[in-house]
Amino acid sequence: MVGSSIQKDSFQAGVETANNALKGIKNPKIGFLFTSVKYDQNEVIKGIKSVNKDVKVIGVTSSGAIMTPEGIISSPDGFAGMMVLEDNELQVGVAASERGNDPRETGRKLAKEAMAQAGKKFAPVAYAMFASPAEEEYYVKGIEDVLGEIPMFGGSAADDAVVGEWKVFCEDKSFGDGCAIALFYTTRDIKTVFTGAYKETDKVGIVTKMNGDRQIVEIDGVPALKKYAEWNGLNADELMGQNLLAASIPYALGVKTLQGDLTAVRHPMIGNPDYSFNVGAKVAEKTAIIQLNNDVDGLINGAVDTIKAVKEGFDPAALFLVHCGGRKLHIGNRIDEDFVAIKNTCGDIPFIVAFTFGEYGQANHSGATIGGLSLSFTGFSK
User: Fold this and answer.
1) How confident is the model at residue 243, as a pLDDT?
2) Beta-carbon neighbour count of residue 148 at 10 Å?
């Protein structure tokens, strides 16, 4: 079941969301919660727990809105929405923590805590991860140090203006920098399709210099922003600061995973005075980076095609759709069209769409991958 609220009061929004999402559900196992940054997240969760103290709550803030079968849920005062799963064959363990000194070590700790909460001493069939948009790859490494490489899905917290107001939350914890996970022990099938749904061009360069994990300094020995601007017929000087963030959405970059089955999207985000630029996920030196392109029609059709891919040969009882907030930004005033396309493709299947600043998944055994401007669409079988 899916429920939502646009009540002004955070606690009452939690109450209304829970009442709507728990209709007919007697033994809820987990609630995926997504809220506005305008709410007090702890109060929202208190409101939910006042309705049902047993439902395990996990999620992040969503950029500007969410979608449910009822429509695009948004309000100047805030919004909240939650998808609740109930299944006698499902056991869930959750855990959350602020970053700490080492995100990889934090990931290890979370995996152990979530296993203990589920009462298990072995790895689950899949896990969901939600984190702040900074070091997601290191949380994954820590989690998979404990669990091994298993299917995963999820997304990064977002806000309305890329100013760091985002929150990650799980049960009684809420913070701006950290990670939360949910482990799924079940005999049912969980299927994730992870894609950028961008078109590759023939423009490819080698990343010849990085500064850290997410700042590309040179491509083919040329200042990276100048090479990027040349590829796309843009003016590098007009891409400084956050000007790059919106301008680059139709012109994302991609890197191939090792076996070549997945092109992980890298979103150019901040142009720097030395003509380097920051991206939204890790890039390694001596990696081939590919110029991608897309337009609004492609972004909308990509969501439709990805839902169809989840449903192909699979009969989901629920669809959990992690949709990049940057894609929503570029879709702009055609967002109603995006909603109608998503709703029509989902049909009668309950769904929730969260708008994130990073998306997670895998394709054809690529291993857990972090991307931007992407779609991580998950179906839970009946």
Assistant:
1) 97
2) 9
* pLDDT score of 27: 96
Angle, helices 136-147 vs 103-118, to 10°: value is: 50
User: Which helix (H) or strand (E) is 219 found in, with range?
Assistant: strand 215-219
Q: 3-state DSSP helix/strand/coil percent for the chain, to nearest 5?
A: 30, 35, 35
pTM metric for this prediction: 0.97
By DSSP bridging, strand 168-170 and strand 351-356 are unpaired
CA distances from 317 to 8, 192, 322 (A): 31, 14, 17
Which residue matches tokens 């994990």? 213
pLDDT of residue 70: 97
SS3 (DSSP) at 338: helix
- Which residue, 356, 324, 329, 377, is CA-closest to 35? 356
Name which of 160, 119, 218, 220 is nearest 355 in CA terms.
160
Query: How many residues can be counted in the chain?
Result: 382
Backbone angles phi, psi at 121, to 5 degrees: -120, 20
pLDDT of residue 269: 97
5 exposure class (CB count in 10 Å sphere: 0-12, 13-18, 19+): buried
Contact 372, 279 (CB under 8 A): yes
Per DSSP, 198 falls in state: P
Q: Report d(CA 95, CA 129) in Å as an integer.
A: 10
What pLDDT is stored for residue 91 in this prediction? 97
| DSSP helix/strand/coil, 17 | helix
| Rounded alpha-carbon distances, angstroms, from residue 83 to 3, 261, 332 | 7, 31, 25
pLDDT tens column, 24-34: 999 999 999 99
Query: Are 289 and 194 contacting, i.e. CB atoms less than 8 angstroms apart?
Result: no
Q: How far apart are CA 109 and CA 288, in angstroms?
A: 34
Q: For residue 245, which of 351, 130, 327, 139 has the smallest C-alpha distance?
A: 327
Pairing verdict, β 253-256 and 288-293: antiparallel
| C-alpha separations of 297 from 191, 250, 291, 337 in Å | 26, 11, 19, 10
**Structure confidence at residue 10 (pLDDT):** 98
Structural element, H or E, at residue 345 = helix 335-346
For the record, the structure tokens of 123 come out as 């790895």
- What is the residue-averaged pLDDT of the chain? 97
Structure-token match 């009882």, residue found: 317
Give the chain's residues under pLDDT 50: none
